[in-house]
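--- STAGE predict ---
source: upstream dedup step, 1 unique chain passed
mode: sequence only
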Amino acid sequence: MFAAFILLVLLIAAAPLTLFSDGTLVQGLVVLVTALSLGVVAVEIRPAEAAHLTRLIRPALILLLVPVLWMLVQLLPMPFGSLSHPIWASAAEALNSPLTGHISIDLGATLIGLFKYLATAGILMIATAVTIDRVRAELTLYWLTAATAVAAVGLIANGLSGFAAPDARTGLQGASALGIAISAAATIRSIERYETRRSNAEMSLATFGRSLAAGLLALAVCALAIIFAAPAQVTFAAGCGFGAVVLVVIIRRFGLGLFAAGALVAVAIIVAIEIASSGLRPGGENPTLRFAAAAAPSAMSTAERMMTDNAVGTGVGTFKALLPIYRDIDDAPAATAPTTAAQIAIEMGRPAPWIVVLMMLAATGIFLRGALRRGRDSFYAAGAAGCAVTLTAEAFTDASLLGTAVVILAASVLGLGLAQSESRTAQ
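--- STAGE serialize ---
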């Protein structure tokens, strides 16, 4: 599956560039490369790898299928008028012609949103398939570390010069936040490899020093970017992800039993919830908006009205079509809602963000279990767990998870963690 691996690396390497040109053309190219890569995987995967991939991917597919089913429901004609959006009734009245109602207010936009979601799931599957191999897994971790470090350098440069547009700046923050957990995993990888291979020529002290220095440098750059050029909310999200990685290391290094490990995880969760509930942005706003890092009051008010008016959503990808109906004439147009969670609630219904949170918690549990069960390769699943925690927290701080770059990086690292959460020899 070398060709699929090369295509995945190209996507990862190009991710920082897409931050500055995230249009329809770029998104279409990503979908095309993803489809091509899936075809290569289907043709070239070996039977033993296919069987292992099936075992690994089955729980993920069950989780990923839930949003797909709801998007299809949004596209279907609704037999009950109470479920369809009122815009269809208004359009029928204006045209004096009967129209079939749908939940989505823009079927084309929702169809495009469905394809983008399927592409994200496809990248996760490709990353899982190609990184079952240990060598490709290590190389993928290197590329992810490098890509997020480049994004962090861009975020620092933007903090000094302010050259990036708001959407690009948000994407740089999201990529840099993921970079902290990814580079932490790369640093742990260097230490683990030296401890297990220092008697071999392949892991000399010089090789160990270069590998460790690269991981620490990437970690330092990402941390510096987040601390000095990102809002406190994003710093908190990145800190939660880093804390999850450190937690796994502590549990493994001290050989804590199941009860002690569970108690430690519970304490960490309680501390994180207490810090979050203390209110980085105190007030009585909607939970999906309360911790928004940088949004105008008018944008917050507009998003909250959108959610209040429709409990079942307006269709994936329809935010831009819906915005002119709600925003005031003096408000600046926006490509996204203030946070990813708010946009999910607007487009997919108010319960949707919490279903996504449950999905991410389930994924985090899978990664943590894998990290605690694996031996020398536990850092992959630990890094993925940290990224899952960061993604969950950051969904409530900004809209970075809606950008192509962060989607590519997130799907790739989660696929890597899934591939290495279970040893092929432990079947």
